[in-house]
Amino acid sequence: MGCREADPVRFELDGAILFSADLSPVAEHLKGYVGEIEAGPLQKGVPDDEDGPHVERMEPAGQELSLVIVSGRYVRAHEALLRLRKELSARMGKEHRIGVRGVRIDRYTISFSVPEAPDHPVRVPFATSLDFEGDTAVMTLDDVSEDFLSRNYVDRLVALVREKVDAQRYEGKEEFWEQIWTSTPREMPYQEDPTEDMARRGWVQQGPGKGRWFFRPQAAAVIRAMERIALEEVLRPLGFQEVISSSLVPFEVWLKTGHLKGVANEIYYFSEPATRSEEAWEELRDLVKVTREVPRDKLVGLLDAPRAGMTYAQCPNIYWSFQKRTVADEDLPILVFDRTANSYRYESGGRHGIERVDEFHRIEPVYIGTVDQLVELREGLIERYKHVFNELLELEWRMAWVSPFYLQQAGMAGGGEDEEATAADERREGTIDFEAYLPYRGTREESEWLEFQNLSILGDIYTTAFNIKAQRHELVSGCSGIGLERWTAVFLSQKGLDPAGWPEGFKRFLPELPRGFTFH
Ligand code: SER
Ligand code: ZN
Fold first, then answer.
1. Closest by alpha carbon to 298, among 285, 316, 289, 311?
2. pLDDT the model gives residue 426
3. pLDDT digits (tens, 9 = 90+) for 79-89
4. Contact 3, 73 (CB under 8 A)
5. N or C terminus of the chain: which is more exposed, having fewer CB within 10 Å?
């Protein structure tokens, strides 16, 4: 996987094969065997016009045969070492009654090409050193175990170096963005930040905790109206069925979607108690009783290290629920949505109002079907979304192709280059962002519009990762995020908090605002 066709790559291995007896009496035989194996079995699988592995140096010393093996990309030096062991074991056992005890790799040096020398240092795990000579990377690994080799870590390290070099190239480049459609401008009678206004009026309360909101009756009613609109005007007419998922996502699921590579630093991790024993927890309880505080350092000792996290997006658990299934043709496309699991993202510096929070409410429709089915569905979804945003909410908004969301969530270097080349109207895959103008942020031209919704078809990455099959067809999948706080933030930013100014289409879903409470 790590080595692309025709990329120059060189493996140099410094190691040894360990035997069960002193090798000096058989040194000459041994050299003969190695020569014979190098010319024969080691070259198996090497194309005619390519170089196979070479044993550059060998030195019997005591019970060890130390070796330097150099190779290109065919029969790499570590594979050559393992083949050599196997072949020598047969010959030495039969002819000299000497067995092979194991192999050792003291140093493995891998040289391979990268697109260009990186500007900043690149760090990867396991490597003792990583240097760049122009567009060649030279990585050394010390004391490499067989396990390390058989788990394919070498290829993955090469891929990781290339990915990190690529990421540096894309740094600072503008993200891909191409407008598809825009509404006409609308009058904006309201200029305030609606969260601040709601907080003043007691519709919302910040907390408990960072980046979360308590929605009092008025705000809750607006959010629930948005939910009803999404359900009744978008999802039910298109035939989506509801599912209810857990809010916890086990690491196995995120290893498949890639979230633990991409957004590990934004996940809210979840710990189980290490034990439920009364005795183990007694001291903590007693300390709480006496000090009226939680001894957090003690608590950590009672918890298991996390094996799961809180929902980041709802689709991973939905894909999990279909994993290793073969779906009946008549059930295609699968159209489901979850609106139960709240999403959690550690936003740190980015928090703002109800639109950028650590915990939010979203309906996530997920669709799995043939490419044609999903392209048609996308048309249907866009038509229903347009109906909602134009006719019911009367928003000023636009749609644009952006980098597919999984590139970020799965930590893949996401440059714009590939996308630009395929940015035709007839795109089959990709992510569309729905963005709305927020007057409180400034002018239309200069302020950042808010992404309040997205819609993706993502090819077969998830159907492959979760092994979801149909009887006859190739399956692809996609999802769309309906962020209820975001819909609400956009609506209130443009229409204000006075129901008298709200469009009739919306008022059908919320004829009257609850009274809420006045505090003295
Ligand atoms: N899974 C998609 C996202 O995270 C849609 O919700 O953006
Ligand atoms: Zn999703």
1. 285
2. 61
3. 999 999 999 99
4. yes
5. C
